[in-house]
Structures are given as structure tokens and as C-alpha cells.
Amino acid sequence: MSHQQFSSSILENAVNEFSKLPGIGRKTALRLVLHILKQPVTDAEIFSNSILQLRKEIVYCKVCHNISDSEVCRICANPSRMNEIVCVVENIKDVMSIENTQQYHGLYHVLGGIISPMDGIGPNNLEIESLIKRVQAENIKEVILALSTTMEGDTTNFYIFRKLAPLNIKITTIARGVAIGDELEYADEVTLGRSILNRIDFSNSFK
Predict the structure, then answer these.
(1) Which of 15, 52, 103, 182 has its CA 20 to 30 A from that of 85?
(2) Structure pTM?
(3) Is the domain of 113 the same as that of 45?
(4) How confident is the model at residue 183, as a pLDDT?
(5) Cβ(103)–Cβ(197) below 8 Å
(6) Do 162 and 83 fall within a single domain?
(7) Domain containing 113 — which CATH number?
(8) d(CA 89, CA 109)
(9) pLDDT in tens, 69-107
(10) 137: domain range?
């Protein structure tokens, strides 16, 4: 879509910004912008303010590294959660997927990725050391490894297992074959929930 097709540079700038979003082409961006243009100004202000607030005010929980409105997220601060169990996940979307099952009532630890030498991501780039310190400092009795069943996920699982093994805690993993495309967010809630409830000892997962 060339510059000449826009009668307004303001419209063009808005389309350019929307088209920077993942999966949004310029045609979709134009459709979204025209939709906003038809809305009342107050609705547009609410929309834009929510994005600004999202970027400026959201922080990461100092305990589990999940997104949060405050220093400690709602999950970590909830006294009814089982604080002796921690589920290790790759990202924030995985927390949401597991929470949607309503089958898990422990805490989380978000790594922020998985070990991937091809992408230049090593253990030091992830929240692994903070997990080890957390297990040492808190009364954690079980760590559930819930990473993707890709080679990188398996490598990360095994690395964490070796780091935690001397601490004499229970280390488990969710059932195999849980997700389509090996991503937790694509697993249906029933299957994912069952895989958490039927988790197995990690040392048995690679025998």
C-alpha cells in the first residue's frame, strides 16, 4: 500500500503503527484503524490509555517473574495457594494455560524462555538461578517441570533437574503428548489439567 493511497498522514501513521504488530498486515491494520475511527472519542481514549497503562505500569513479580500490577503477583500473594509446590514454565502464556485448567493450585516460576544455543540463549539468560535460590530459601517440596517437549525444552528440563537434584526435593514433569505442536498454550484444558494431575517423577521420564 503506497503513500499515495492515503489522503491523511495521520491515518497513514496509525496504519503503520498497527502493522508493526505480529500477524497484522497493512490491510488488517487499515481495517482496525478505520474501526477505531468510527468509535466515539471516549472509547478510543479508553483503548489508547489501556495500552499506555499496560506498557508503563505492568511489572514482573519479584518472586515468580510472572506479569503483575505490584511487586508480588496475585498468585504468589494468595494465601490459599499451595506454596510448597512450584510449577516451572517457559513463559507467561503457559501460566495462563495452566490456570485455565483450574486443576493446579500451587505456585509458578517463569523462566522467560528455554535454553537454545542456536538463538544464543543459555542458562544465564533465564531465571534458573533464581529458581535454585528460591527452592533453597523457601519450604518447597516439589518442583514440576512443565516445559515444551522440544529438544530445547528437554535440554532445559534436564539442566534444571541436575541443578535441583542435590537439594533432595521431589522433581516431577507433566505427562508426555500433552500438546499439539509441543506448546502448552495449544493443549486443550482437559488434557493439560489431566497431565498435571497425572505428573510423573522426572527421573522416570528419560529411562
Answers:
(1) 182
(2) 0.79
(3) no
(4) 59
(5) yes
(6) yes
(7) 3.40.1360.10
(8) 6
(9) 999 999 999 999 999 999 999 999 999 999 998 989 999
(10) 67-204
Strands 67-68 and 59-60: antiparallel
Q: State the burial class of residue 11 (Cβ atoms within 10 Å of its Cβ: 0-12, 13-18, 19+).
A: middle
Distance of CA 197 to CAs 104, 158, 192, 204, Å?
Answer: 8, 21, 9, 16
Percentage of residues of the chain with pLDDT beyond 90: 71
SS (H, E, C) the chain: CCHHHCCCHHHHHHHHHHCCCCCCCHHHHHHHHHHHHHCCHHHHHHHHHHHHHHHHHCEECCCCCCEECCCCCHHHHCCCCEEEEEEEECCHHHHHHHHHHCCCCEEEEECCCCCEHHHCECHHHCCHHHHHHHHHHCCCCEEEECCCCCHHHHHHHHHHHHHHHHHCCEEEECCCCCCHHHCHHHCCHHHHHHHHHCCEEHHHCCC
- pLDDT the model gives residue 3: 46
Q: Does any domain span residue 47?
A: yes
Q: What is the CATH number of the domain that holds 8?
A: 1.10.8.420
| Number of domain units in the chain | 2
Q: Residue 83, Cβ neighbours under 10 Å: how many?
A: 15
Give the three cell numbers for residue 173.
Answer: 514433569
pLDDT of residue 149: 80
Residues 9 and 86 in one domain: no
Mean pLDDT, rounded, for 9-29: 94
- Looking at the fold, whether 39 and 122 belong to one and the same domain comes out as no
